[in-house]
Amino acid sequence: MTREKSEVYIISDVFKNISKLPPLLPILYFLLVRTLKLNMELFIISVIALTMQLHRMQLPREVVVGNETLPLLSEICKKLGFCESALVVTGPDTQSIAGRRVIDLLSDKEMDVDAFVVKSSTMWEVRAVEEKIKDLKPQVVLGVGGGTKIDVAKLSSTRQGIAFISVPTTASHDGIASPVAAIKGLKKPYSVMAQSPMAIVADTDIIIRSDYRFTASGCGDLVSKFTSVRDWELAYKVKNEYYGEYAASLALMSARLVTKNADVITPGSEEGLRLVLEALISCGVAMSIAGSSKPCSGSEHLFSHSLDLVEPNGCLHGEQCGVGTIMMAYLYDIDWKGIKDTLQRAGAPTTAEELGVEPESIVKALVQACTIRPERYTILNTKKLDYASAKKLAKVTSVIS
Ligand SMILES: [Zn+2]
Asked: Cα(304) to centroid of ligand 1, in Å?
């Protein structure tokens, strides 16, 4: 049985971190060589080991994107060693769209399949799914639905230490493939680390039937990598944080791809949808490689989380992130007009009015954004926005008039 995810460990930052050690060397020498009688060779090895940071990457093993791919699910489960039991986490609507079909497909292969219907991504729902997992002891949890169901399935399976498979029914954000989950009711209004899906099965035949607004929102989440990667780079330069060029390049490539092909991304276009899905999955993998959401979530995401607090139940995550990216790109003095143009071509909102929020809420969200996640260093730490400068920023980028 192969239940393990692809895991890669990289020893990084040896030389960067060794510079922090000299003040501790005399103490270590006294403790290890003089007191514990460790020989000098072992002492040197210990010093090097102390400076190493093990960087763990957890990657999906099977990724399938395309038309009529859902029937492949039972074969994928079998390949991964899940032949006996599964718990399907789905929503009231997504159950009829894909949940029921997934249950039937797995049941036909003699698997013991149970379903759990969740309505929202709250901690209450996560705990309820955890209880179900404890009770049924399934081999794997499948999240079938939009972001909400996938996030609940992802976090509950992580907390119970079992594998998770992602079966998205929309292409609204990169959570369909990432190791992070956005759950309401946690202490902070942003995503938490969970686990990356062991497999992703994205059936374009199902996703194309969802409201196009979701796919346009996915484009918003994708262009946001133009500023999130900048923020990550900034944190590396100013705060000496870990920065991985490979993960950064992968995230940026997705943003560039959506910019180049924005005209293809239209309602009913399978080619456009495939492109968005593949780019979102690449972003999820970039986060898995980085071991954090940093390549894909920077100041523009802080703005979105802040707007969630100012205007709860407002708009879709990717829609807000897209608008945030326009403003953060202006602060970085990068091509914010080009980003706006991409969003417009893809049919995503670019103004407060299109988002359906008050101009005042945009300004408030901008001012509060830097307080949402103080440990995440972004452009908002260097360009502190007060009410007047936030209003000016929203106006100059035409987010408000
Ligand atoms: Zn996002």
From this structure: 9
The alpha carbon of 302 and the centre of ligand 1 are apart by a number of angstroms equal to 10
3-state secondary structure of 166: strand
Phi, psi of 160 (to 5 degrees): -100, 5
pLDDT at 12: 42
- Mean pLDDT per 10-residue segment, the chain (401 residues): 49 43 63 64 60 70 95 95 96 90 95 94 93 97 94 96 97 95 74 92 97 97 98 96 95 97 96 97 95 96 94 88 98 98 98 96 97 93 96 98 94
**DSSP letters for 177-244:** TSSEE--BTSSSSS-EE----SEEEEEHHHHTTS-HHHHHHHHHHHHTHHHHHHHHHHHHHHH-----
Cα distances from 17 to residues 13, 25, 97, 240, 246, in angstroms, run 6, 13, 51, 10, 20
- Give the contacts of 107 (CB within 8 A, at least 6 positions apart): 113
* CA pair distance 135, 129, nearest whole angstrom: 10
Q: How far is the CA of 283 from the centre of ligand 1 (A)?
A: 9
Nearest of 204, 143, 208 to residue 177 by alpha carbon: 143
Between the CA of 45 and the centroid of ligand 1 the distance, in Å, is 41
399 secondary structure, DSSP code = S
Measured N-to-C along each axis, helices 359-372 and 299-310 cross at an angle, to the nearest 10 degrees, of 120
Query: How many whole angstroms from 227 Cα to the centroid of ligand 1?
Result: 12
pLDDT of residue 245: 94
Looking at residue 49, its pLDDT comes to 53
Return the pLDDT at 8: 55
Q: Which residues contact 74 (CB under 8 A, 6 or more apart)?
A: 105, 106, 108, 109, 111
- What is residue 381's three-state secondary structure? helix
Tell which residue, 107, 103, 104, has the closest CA to residue 117: 103
Q: Output the pTM of the full model.
A: 0.86
Q: How far is the CA of 168 from the centre of ligand 1 (A)?
A: 15
Crossing angle of the two packed helices 317-332 and 212-223, in degrees rounded to 10: 30
- Distance (Å) of CA 340 to CA 388, 393, 399: 23, 14, 10
